[in-house]
Amino acid sequence: xxxxxxxxxxxxxxxEFHYGxxxxxxxxxxxxxxxxxxxxxxxxxxxxxxxxxxxRWMHTAGCRRWFNAVRDTVxxxxxxxxxxxxxxxxxxxxxx
Amino acid sequence: xxxxxxxGGCIDRTKPxxxxxxxxxxxxxxxxxxxxxxxxxxxxxxARSFKYHRPRGIVxxxxxxxxxxxxxxxxATTIPNLKATEVHLFDxxxxxxxxxxxxxxxxxNAANGWFSNLFPAGxxxxxxxxxxxxxxxxxxxxxxxxxxxxxxxxxxxxDCYDHKHVHCDVLVVGGGPSGLAAAxxxxxxxxxxxxxxxxxxxxxxxxxxxxxxxxxxxVAWAARQAAELDTMDEVTLLPHTTVFGYYHHNYLCAxxxxxxxxGIASSPANPRMRxxxxxxxxxxLATGAHERPLIFADNDRPGVMLANAAQSYVNRYxxxxxxxxxLLTNNDGAYEAALDLKxxxxxxxxxxxxxxxxxxxxxxRARAAGIxxxxxxxxxxxxxxxxxxxxxIRQLSEDRRSVTGPEKTLACDLLLMSGGWSPVVHLFCHTQxxxxxDEVRACFLxxxxxxxxxxxxxxxxxxxxxxxxxxxxxxxxxxxxxxxFGAGVPVQTDFACEEPGEGTIEAQWSVPAPGxxxxxxxxxxxxxxxxxxxIGLAAREGFESVEHMKRYTLSGFGTDQGKTGNINALxxxxxxxxxxxxxxxxxxxxxxxxxxxxxxMAGRDVxxxxxxxxxxxxxxxxxxxxxxxxxxxxxxxxxxxxRAGEDMHAAxxxxxxxxxxxxxxxxxxTLGKIDIRGPDAAEFLNRIYTNAWLKLDIGxxxxxxxxxxxxxxxxxxxxxxxxxxxxxxxxTTGGAATVLDxxxxxxxxxxxxxxxxxxxxxxxxxTVSVAGPKARAVLEKICPQTSLSPxxxxxxxxxxxxxxxxxxxxxxxxxxxxxxxxxxxxxWSGQTLWEAVMEAGKExxxxxxxxxxxxxxxxxxxxxIVGQETDGTTTPQDLGMDWIVSKxxxxxxxxxxxDRQDTSRSDRKQLVGILTDDPQDVLPEGAQLVANPTAPKxxxxxxxxxxxxxxACLGHSIxxxxxxxxxxxxxxxxFAPLESKSVRARLVDPIFYDRDGERRDG
Lengths: 96, 1002
Known about the structure:
heterodimer; A: 96 residues; mainly beta; 4-stranded antiparallel β-sheet; two-stranded antiparallel ribbon; 1 helix; 9% helix; globular; B: 1002 residues; alpha+beta; 7-stranded mixed β-sheet; 6-stranded mixed β-sheet; 24 helices; 50 strands; elongated
């Protein structure tokens, strides 16, 4: 069971958290302006990164706040966590 | 005959114990295991093997034992498939052999062995793939009868179990010499240390081997070390505790046996077992090593035992497992066993050594003691079926691939074998720890890990005592420093140990057979009856991956998970396919290391504590009225309220008719309620729901659908505007938590600029729904200050009022189509309100109704239930609810998806009603619908039934269905092909009752 460092509460057991998938996929400002392909990409396409991956977690059974984490999908190490709106840590998994 | 030695060992001769094995009363001592007590009584044949039902004896002295499985106790507390070697003896213990009938000495299924040519590896796959019918009628029933080992108890477990969650700085797993040294060095720094060991007494290998440390007897040294640790405030000693799982981020689970004797009852304060959840900053694994068997013909006969196990029985339990001992070995260790047994009074018939030379310390001592040593020889046959009587010996050829020279025979009643040591790497591997094969020591050793872990002692190949102690001390001190304690320098690294020289090992993974084929079977995995030939067959048939070989031959399965056989198996596979052992690798080690009773896993989460139960404030009333409940999520909701003599059908019909013709009352307290506040609350709802919310007046209520971004419905409910910046949202009973999560996710991640707060108030407001033409008459009696006329209090509005003296919010919403009031009062007033409504409604024969009637009533009106008419692939348009999807709003969650090709298809499944030709036919929910039941198979399916009931009010059955292009097909005939018959039906509009909504205002 992972030990996840909630940026608000500190390290807590994984079972207090809820996984939220890949991070930094913003909802498009104007969905109507997107082509079907672009919209489908936003809806369904997610990376399956091997290595460092930026992803969202929610401290469901704690402070109920969403935050981001950088996790190594091979070792399961949680390398860093940071709050929503903070500058993303690392480059792993980002669409850049 | 008694094989107990008159002195020595760690048993307490002042505490004799009586126990019963296979109906026979026997004696042992405190400190015995069941295995040692059986051997003391001369019992070697204790089990039958899985496939061939061959007679089997005790091979090992610990949890690695593959053979000696027993059923412990009887009745509700019986435990199947325990290894006799891990059962600590207690007075009154009862055990029986498993997998044999009628008895362990005469087993009918042993006939399998005579036809063993018919049961090669892969037999099951090959045979049972032939024919489905044969499998169902012949093979499966036979296998179910004859396979499996012990029997699970059928009664509830009366014992109490507990869980404990702890954090520590250093967890040391294994209380042998290395683990004790590690725990001591970590403990003295002041770190929080836990030391866990599966045995009752700390000391590990010191119990089996005669050793002295710093001038003290090894067992006494271990006891002294444990006592010293016990004085340290931050150290927790956990004897009789097996760490069985190593999970990510240094989370380990262990199971502690607190009460060993079945004669002592457990209680919540005094549980039988305790499951430990340990989060450790640093872990030191000192799990030791298991001795490997050697692979030769009939190496499974009772009386063939691991050499180190025999030392355990002699030195720890003071039991002589045989009087005339022969040994087969590829290393020096067995020589010490020979010397120990000789010292204990056994005759040593000879030592057969596979190696080309043996000139170490121990072999010299053995020769000096007059023991015959045969170098470069192998055992080619074992005589005796239910007990070893003798062995045949041949010389190994120069290339070690065949045997040569004349056959010699040796009479013996015990054959000890030693194939070297396999470090217990299991825990290390649970979280992706990688291993490296060490050619010199002929074993896998820990290499790399993702965890904050270090390994010590025999686990890393330090098989000598001084090396193991030094390694443990260093790793313990370093682990403490890594956790922030001490300087990482141990106080003692040099231990004066009296021990023989280690010698060298020459791996010989299986013994060549005379003439190239053996008469007897060379067993690799004793528990699964896997032979070296089976592994060869697997390799020949292409199962070259170690994982495939495992599944084809069953090697490594079972309660022992191949602890003795795995390395031999993969080494044989490697030689057959011409790969190195490193390349072949091991199968994946997974938790648990040893079996964990379900009771310990469940802990206190049994019975009523299994899952939280949520009840409404009126629950006691419902119970008193004899309501039948259904579970909705964790909620208990009244399903129907049967009266004397009524079945469910009759009760539901009566309840439905009461609502249609008079007045009914429903406990709707379980509906999810979310209080939404903030200046942007209306804007937020406008984005979340598919319809428009900005202009909803205060005091008004609106129904809304929530969709995901993909346009699929995921919840629905009504939301009322309580103030400019204040709304009360209702959700489905089951969806409340998900909806709150959904709202918070958007507020925190997509729209953090919106000033909105959401609070769950489900359990703050109890809800009583009064429905039916007489609803107003009932409410007027207890809510006299509020005008309830449709003009003053119209549909889809709410008022603050006082009902039965209780401040209330009254909503005019309806899920039945009838005039309906939903009265919300503070939770603690729920039952008072309910009783007041019942009292006021008495003269109208007010009828409490449950969820089943609610479902029928809403289906009559064509109202959908999310999760019943929808399944995550259903859009509002599919349900004919275009009217609730705003065309004007620029954006809301899901909007963009309605233009996608898939959601605008005309052949999507759409909601329709169904009327069966026979009005009494009630279709099963989930029934598939076809247009032509006589079409060639597979018949194209055009839809499925989502809801189906008998409608008492309409006098016939009704159903809702999702049907491809359903709306266009209304009027068409469809068929529901059921097992017994094909039901003919007609597609109709989904609103069956009061199409124009005339009953809404009463």
